[in-house]
Amino acid sequence: MSQPSLRERRRATATREIVEAAEQQIAEVGPATLSLRAVARALGMTVQALYHYFPNRDALLTVLVTKAYDDLADAVQAAVDTAADDPADPDLPRLVIAAEGYRSWAIAHPERFQLLYGTPLRGYEAPAEGPTTRATRRMGTLFERELFGGFTKAQLAAADTPPLSAPLRAYLEQLPPSGLGALPPPATALFMSAWGRLHGLVVLEVFGHTSFLGDHQAEIFRLSVRSLLDDIRGRIPAA
Predict the structure, then answer these.
(1) Mean pLDDT on 142-160
(2) pTM above 0.85, yes or no
(3) In 3-state terms, what secondary structure has residue 86?
(4) Residue 216 maps to which CATH number?
(5) 28 shares its domain with 78
(6) Residue closest to 26 by CA, chosen among 66, 68, 58
(7) Tens digits of per-residue pLDDT, 31-61?
(8) Which pLDDT tens digit goes with each residue over 108-141?
(9) Residues 6+ apart with CB under 8 A from 24
(10) What CA–CA distance (Å, rounded) separates 79 from 20?
(11) Do residues 54 and 36 touch, judged by C-beta distance below 8 A?
(12) Are 125 and 166 in a shared domain?
């Protein structure tokens, strides 16, 4: 395999520096005010020179969103891979560990979390079936594995959920198998319910709505995720 040329290496270095400068700007002023001109100024280059690497703001945003999703997924995976036994809770489920990895990354990177889950950026539209879609599916796969690992498809199809309407069931059945379409409709409904509860707690904390709990936010989060896990798995019949 041939080595990258000097020109390719320089382009890769410049691209990386632009992305890092954009992430720094987001950390300082939030994603809504991301400016190519300000990024270029921080690097000592003209905005015209920056256009050689990113032709417009959307192209840069797509890279930033994809990288944020990947970094978040890496943090979740690392939390599960490196989890040590908690002496206070030796039977801590892997889903709770994954959820706490998700929460920790969001708290450490609130502006990048806002880039992913905050107010949609005016005028930006992620490319259909592009890198951002693949990155979000990776995140979903991680949590799907920890939520439903060990259950058969027949068990998931027999999960106890409120009756699904015929249009909803038909819609869920035609979802692409590369995403949640690999799950039976009842399991998809359970997954979305669990995701909404887990993610909602993190959003409330990152945006400051649970600050009245002080240092007890982590404990409340763990209790809540364990509760939702017990609820979801209690709806899935034994093999």
Answers:
(1) 94
(2) yes
(3) strand
(4) 1.10.357.10
(5) no
(6) 68
(7) 988 899 999 999 999 999 999 999 999 999 9
(8) 999 999 999 988 888 888 888 889 989 999 999 9
(9) 42
(10) 24
(11) yes
(12) yes
